[in-house]
Amino acid sequence: MQFNTKIAIVIRTDLEAWQKLNVASFLAGGIAATFPECVGAPYEDGSGTTYLALIGQPILIYGADRAGLSRALERALARDVRPAIYTEDMFKTTHDEANRAAVKAVARADLDLVGLALRAERKVVDKILDGLKFHS
């Protein structure tokens, strides 16, 4: 199945494994919360046990250094694509309000990005992430 949109998450490659998983999880949640139409139906197994719904289209995971993340953020904003972001400072907080305060305290040019996620038309996402490679 071909989707008109693409979901992509970009993770800073120098993070610890647990941090990468944490960042990807939070960012995917931001996509699901902002675009509820991308969430599929709940699952059910052959025994009738039901499970939560998942995002219903592939999520592509890219790796980047600090400069690559900053470039992707600027490209997204220049194309009117509002991304979800995760910053280094958010690892030091314990709840959503503190996360938002940590981001609010820093100008965009000074954000220490560790990840971002976006959903937009396929070609737009490709232009935003041009030059980045899939995370390995």
Tell me about the largest β-sheet: 5 strands, mixed
Q: Find the structural class using helix and strand composition.
A: alpha+beta
Order of helices and strands: EHEEEHEHEHE
Q: How many strands in all?
A: 7
Unreliable stretches (pLDDT < 50, length at least 5) are none
Helix count equals: 4
Question: Strand order of the main beta sheet, please?
Answer: 5-6-1-4-7
What distinguishing features does this structure have?
4 helices, 7 strands, 136 residues
Write the layout of secondary structure elements.
Blueprint: E1 5-12, H1 17-34, E2 43-44, E3 50-51, E4 59-64, H2 66-78, E5 84-87, H3 96-104, E6 113-121, H4 122-128, E7 133-134
Parallel strand pairs: 1-4
Antiparallel strand pairs: 1-6, 2-3, 4-7, 5-6
Helix pairs in contact: 2-4
Describe this structure in words.
The structure is a single chain. This protein is α+β, with helices and mostly antiparallel strands and 136 residues long. It contains four helices and seven strands. It has helices spanning 17-34, 66-78, 96-104, 122-128, and strands at residues 5-12, 43-44, 50-51, 59-64, 84-87, 113-121, 133-134. The strands form two sheets. The protein has a five-stranded mixed β-sheet with strand order 5-6-1-4-7. Strands 2-3 form a two-stranded antiparallel sheet. A hairpin with a 5-residue loop joins strand 2 and strand 3 (50-51). Helix 2 (66-78) packs across helix 4. The protein is globular. The mean pLDDT is 97.
